[in-house]
Amino acid sequence: MATPSLHSHTFFLLLAIFILRQHLAVAGGCQYPPVIFNFGDSNSDTGGLAAGLGYTIGLPNGRSFFRRSTGRLSDGRLIIDFLCESLNKSLLNPYLDSLVGSKFQNGVNFAIVGSTTLPRYVPFVLNIQLMQFLHFKSRALELASTSDPLKEMMITENGFRTALYMIDIGQNDIADSFSKGLSYSQVVKHIPNVISEIKSAIKTLYDEGGRKFWVHNTGPLGCLPQKLSMVHSKALDKHGCLSSYNSAAKLFNEGLDHMCRELRTELRDADIVYVDIYTIKYDLIANSTNHGFEKPLMACCGYGGPPYNYNVNITCGHGGSNSCDEGSRFISWDGIHYTETANAIVAMKVLSMQYSTPPTPFHFSCSR
């Protein structure tokens, strides 16, 4: 029996996601898609950095789906894009993008590349994103109460109350701590403060009427080509990833899981779903050939060639960098972020409910 080609593998994968999306629509799983508010970093930034700071994110970013750069750090769609598509929703616009007019009826993306949880008042940390949300909500409700023609394009009080609030942040807090030369014990000591900021954000959103929360944990930081290329003293696990980085990520995830369990007890009328992104992504590395990927620890777009194709001075999209011909054969796009194909697989597994606690379909937030 012939082995399926990598191209056919990708085709059937994306077809599976399409079929799942259609199944949800036909089954009435999401007759009225929810408003979505997303808070996070580059893993879910759909153009915020480019819009907010004018930072140039050019091709080859965006080449495989959008055929142009959209400010996403990938060759195509991100996990959040696939999740939105699973609800038959249009993709989220970044809050800071002035050129989208007032097209925020379906939600807002506050995520920005490089965002952390601490320190609290440095753009664009989680607390700043939260302040932006509060300003947006106040202004939207103000307009909705007037005769302004824009009121029809604003999110209503009910829209805010029934919205899905997504949080995907924390990776940069851990990564930045290591990059500052802190020891493993010092990095771990900082984790409770990060968890506390995320908990505070969720409680603030709850006080504002939010009742549906979708929280992603952080991925295997030690498997990123960027980290592997820049850390000179390497203690690697059996799959070639940095053990200390991944151990810190797992401790963060344990704390995040515990926090979500606590909040379910404290906020009994809220739905708080914790999603194990780490396990999904680590499986892509550990079983890369089963998923049709080559060289799981090497970036498609970068400089330097094997084993990691990452150079901090010549990063993807900048002069001297090069990109692979087929991003679908790679997990890592630029040494930090995933290719569209890898993001598609992660999204499909998220939608399977096997990695969420409690097991919850993503369309749980849909109005019936």
TrEMBL record:
GO molecular function terms attached to this record: hydrolase activity, acting on ester bonds
Signal peptide (from-to): 1-27
Domain of life: Eukaryota
InterPro entries, per database record: GDSL, SGNH_hydro_sf, SGNH_plant_lipase-like
Record key words, sorted: Glycoprotein, Hydrolase, Signal
Family indicated by similarity: Belongs to the 'GDSL' lipolytic enzyme family.
Name of the protein: (rape) hypothetical protein
Lineage of origin: Eukaryota, Viridiplantae, Streptophyta, Embryophyta, Tracheophyta
